[in-house]
Structure formats: C-alpha cells, structure tokens
UniProtKB/TrEMBL annotation:
<feature type="transmembrane region" description="Helical">
    <location>
        <begin position="388"/>
        <end position="414"/>
    </location>
</feature>
<feature type="transmembrane region" description="Helical">
    <location>
        <begin position="263"/>
        <end position="282"/>
    </location>
</feature>
<feature type="domain" description="Major facilitator superfamily (MFS) profile">
    <location>
        <begin position="19"/>
        <end position="462"/>
    </location>
</feature>
<dbReference type="InterPro" id="IPR052187">
    <property type="entry name" value="MFSD1"/>
</dbReference>
<keyword id="KW-1133">Transmembrane helix</keyword>
<dbReference type="InterPro" id="IPR036259">
    <property type="entry name" value="MFS_trans_sf"/>
</dbReference>
<feature type="transmembrane region" description="Helical">
    <location>
        <begin position="302"/>
        <end position="322"/>
    </location>
</feature>
<keyword id="KW-0812">Transmembrane</keyword>
<dbReference type="InterPro" id="IPR020846">
    <property type="entry name" value="MFS_dom"/>
</dbReference>
<feature type="transmembrane region" description="Helical">
    <location>
        <begin position="86"/>
        <end position="104"/>
    </location>
</feature>
<comment type="similarity">
    <text>Belongs to the major facilitator superfamily.</text>
</comment>
<protein>
    <recommendedName>
        <fullName>Lysosomal dipeptide transporter MFSD1</fullName>
    </recommendedName>
</protein>
<feature type="transmembrane region" description="Helical">
    <location>
        <begin position="54"/>
        <end position="79"/>
    </location>
</feature>
<feature type="transmembrane region" description="Helical">
    <location>
        <begin position="354"/>
        <end position="376"/>
    </location>
</feature>
<feature type="transmembrane region" description="Helical">
    <location>
        <begin position="14"/>
        <end position="34"/>
    </location>
</feature>
<dbReference type="GO" id="GO:0005765">
    <property type="term" value="C:lysosomal membrane"/>
</dbReference>
<dbReference type="Pfam" id="PF07690">
    <property type="entry name" value="MFS_1"/>
</dbReference>
Length: 475
C-alpha cells in the first residue's frame, strides 16, 4: 500500500478543523442556554417573586436527571455502543426539547399559584425543562470530546479541545452579557407576581433571552447533521486505509476497569471540586456584583462576562502549551491555587470596589483556562479510547453532583445568612442587600480541596507513568 493510500480524512488539517468548527456551533448554543438565566436572578425575584432558594432549586435541576437517573452514564454507554452520530443527534434533540419546556414554563407565571412537590409549579416546570436540557448538553459534551479524540489523536488534541471550549465559552459570555439588555428591550405588559398576587404590569421580558437560546439550539441541532456526513466520510476513509478497526469494541466489563483505576478517580474528584467552584459561581456572579459591589443590574453582567472572555484566548493557548511542552498535572494544580485565591478575596467583607472584582474575575478566567485545557486531554492518557465515552460520562456524572448540589447549597446558605432579605420581600418593604461572605467561603473551600487532589494526581502520575507531564504531540 502506498503512503498516499494510507492517509485518511483526519490527516487533512482543513477537514479536521472544519469538523471541529461544526460541532462547536452545537456546543456554543448549549452553553448559551446553560447560563442564560444567571443574570436574570434579580428579575426572577422582582417579576415572579422567586427566592434565592427557588433560584437554587431551578439551577440545580441541571443535574437532577443526570445524577439521580444516571442519564449521563446511559449516555456514555450509548455513545460507546452506538457511536458519535446517533448520540450527537439524540443529545442535541434533547437540548431543544428541554429548552422548549423551560420557555413554556417561564412564559406561564400563572403556574406560580400552584405547587408541585412543595415547589412553586412555575419554578418546578422551568426546572424540569432545564433538567431535560441538562441531559442533552452533558451527553453532547462527552460526544464532542470523543469526536475530538477521533479526529485529533496524535495531533493537536489539547489545542482542539481548547478551541472547542473557547467557542462554548463564547456562548457562556453571551449568556452573561446579553439577557438583561434583551429582556429590557422586549419589555411588555405581562403577568407578574406582586405581594403574592398575579397582576398585569409592564416589565422586562424574562422569556425573550430563552426564546433566543431556543433558536440557537435549533440551529445547533441542524448543523450537527452536517457533521454526521463528515463523520461518515471519515469512517469510509479509515476503513479504506484499515486505520480504525484495530480498536476493541466496548464491553460492559470495561466499566469495572475504569472504576478500579485510581487515576480515573483522582481526575473525577478534581473535576467535581474545580467545576463546582466555577460554574455555580457564574450562576450567582451577576447577583454578587449587584449586592457586594453595588453595580446597577443592567451592568452587573459585564464583569462576570470577562471570565469566559479571557478563556477564549487562554484555553487554546494553554492547550497548545500542553500539546508541545506537557506539564498537565502542574497546570491543574496552579488553576486550583488561583481558585482558592480568588474566592478567598471575594469572601472578604472589604475591598468592595468594582475594579477588584474585575481583577478577580480575570484571574478566575485564567484558572478556567488552565484546568480544562489540561484536564480533558489527560483523560485519554489514563483511559483507553474504546472506553472513553463511558469514562467521560462517569467523570461528568460525578461532576454533575457538584453542579447540582452546590448551586442549591449556595441559594440556601444565601437565604439563611440573610433572613432580613426574605422578611423584607414578604413584607413588601425595601429589600436590603445580600451578604455573600458565606457562599464565597464555600467556593474557596472547594478550591483548597482541589489543590490537595491535584497534588495526589501528580504523585499518581509519577507512580503509574500516565504521561500527564509529557507533551501530547508525538514527534
Ligand atoms: N456550562 C456548561 C456546563 C458543561 C459541563 C460539562 N460537563 C463540562 O465540564 N464541560 C467542560 C468545560 O470545561 O466546559
């Protein structure tokens, strides 16, 4: 066989980066919807009388089905059994469905008068939509990771993962910055909750940003079909060059192999600690800016939006460093140290100046670039490729406990630490500001634990020789 015949579609730079560009659109839309409600917390409180606990319940719903019903684990098994095409279409369809239910719930404030399982039905139904969406976006996330490994293994894998994450973070950035202006622009007379009563009143449209997200998700669903045709061509070229089929098929006994691997557990625990101190923070960041730094609600999203902005450039940059120079475990430890530093300063009841918040958010952005750009490309160094879908799904499953539990805990702690706010809301008097000290101490504690686990991972890497400190590009 000649050298030319052995080349496959993934050996074409244009083809593999083109494939990456297409799947990134789907993830962009998914990340936009994930955080679209974050800057709307004060509006949900003023328009529909949601409490911080209600907001925490809604936010935690992201992980309900993934965690308690093991949907993510099923997703990983489906991915390894059925492949990336089927799983990608399935997961982006689920995202569209969940977003549709969430939109319907938010546009029906009359649900506020009922309760379901002790929760306001308005909150509950929005949460159900978000829970379904959470299944879709998480399974899409593991599918996309597997697609990147398929196209980029032995090439610029960390850079590719970094680029995909950068596009996804663009979605997060837009989700933090755009909803308040969008909701204000589409202000209308609609049903609101005032002192427990439903009244027709002029006010910002909380549902407008969700409608926008829904349209983006439909576009992401359609574009995934374009990827499917590329994937078919890749498989055809691999079959011709006899390049893939050396990979052993996934067996259920592989799950046992994954969960008895200590390196897997260290990555998974580091993942839940790290991400629980960043993503749930984003859900409360705009509110923190209003309450701690005295920013106007219309401008409060600007500072938190700097967080994903920095990651757009830094995640691919650090991914490139890992590809060429290695030092993956060290990068994860440095990221965890930055988390501890940032949240500790946020927790101080002093330095309440907006420029301090800007600096802290930028440092947090560096952490959110360092850790993911090293963490995700490290997984294929610990786990064989045929078990990757299941391994990623197990890691995301463990991570989802944090993405579900921490926002709920923060909402509860916020209400408990600020009883005067709840009282003022109930009495219809001027509402005082939330004190965010306790929630920020919780985030700092997660950073501290992440440093310890990062160090254990580095020690394990030395012992087992995973190569986490070695470059990804094979010379
Ligand atoms: N805001 C979207 C949450 C996606 C969570 C997902 N499990 C994940 O961790 N993705 C990797 C990342 O760094 O975004």
């Amino acid at each position: 066989m000649t050298e030319a015949l052995r080349l496959t579609l993934r050996d074409s730079k244009a083809a593999r980066w083109g494939a990456l560009g297409i799947i990134s659109i789907t993830m962009f839309a998914g990340y936009f919807l994930t955080d679209v409600m974050s800057p709307l917390k004060p509006m949900l409180e003023s328009e529909f009388a949601w409490s911080s606990t209600n907001y925490g319940i809604f936010t935690s719903a992201y992980g309900w089905l993934n965690v308690f019903f093991g949907m993510l684990i099923f997703g990983g098994i489906i991915l390894d059994k059925m492949g990336v095409r089927f799983t990608g279409i399935m997961s982006s369809g689920i995202m569209v469905l969940g977003a549709g239910i969430k939109y319907w719930a938010i546009t029906n404030p009359t649900l506020v008068t009922d309760t379901t399982f002790g929760i306001h039905t308005h909150v509950f139904m929005a949460a159900v939509g978000f829970a379904i969406f959470g299944v879709g976006v998480e399974i899409a996330g593991i599918t996309v990771s597997k697609i990147i490994v398929k196209w980029f293994k032995g090439n610029e894998m960390a850079l590719a993962m970094g680029m995909q994450m950068a596009v996804a973070r663009l979605g997060t950035m837009l989700a933090i910055a755009a909803p308040v202006p969008l909701a204000t622009y589409f202000s209308s007379v609609h049903t609101q909750v005032v002192n427990g009563e439903l009244v027709e009143k002029m006010g910002p449209s909380v549902s407008a940003p969700i409608a926008f997200a829904f349209v983006l998700l439909v576009i992401g669903f359609i574009t995934f079909f374009i990827y499917v045709s590329m994937d078919k061509k890749l498989d055809a070229s691999l079959a011709e060059s006899n390049g893939t089929d050396s990979e052993e098929p996934f067996k259920f006994s592989d799950i046992g192999r994954i969960v008895t691997n200590k390196g897997f557990w260290l990555i998974a625990v580091l993942c839940v600690l790290f991400y629980s101190s960043v993503f749930p923070f984003i859900k409360y960041a705009s509110d923190l800016m209003v309450n701690k730094y005295g920013l106007d609600q219309n401008l409060a999203g600007i500072i938190p939006s700097l967080l994903p902005l920095g990651t757009l450039f830094l995640t691919p940059l650090f991914g490139g460093v890992y590809d060429k120079k290695g030092k993956g475990a060290t990068m994860m430890i440095i990221g965890a140290v930055l988390i501890l530093l940032v949240h500790s300063v946020f927790s101080l009841p002093i330095l309440n100046y907006w420029f301090v918040a800007v600096v802290l958010v930028i440092i947090l952005g560096i952490a959110l670039s360092l850790v993911p750009s090293a963490m995700w490309p490290s997984v294929p160094k610990i786990i064989p490729e045929n078990q990757l879908g299941t391994a990623f799904s197990l890691i995301f499953w463990i991570q989802n406990w944090g993405l579900m539990g921490i926002p709920l805990l923060i909402g509860y702690v916020l209400d408990q630490s600020n009883p005067e706010v709840a009282l003022a809301k109930a009495n219809g008097t001027a509402v005082p500001l939330y004190d965010y000290t306790n929630p920020m101490l919780i985030f700092a504690g997660l950073g501290l634990l992440a440093i310890i686990v990062g160090m254990l991972l580095k020690m394990e890497d030395k012992k087992k020789g995973y190569g986490l400190e070695l470059p990804n590009i094979q010379k």
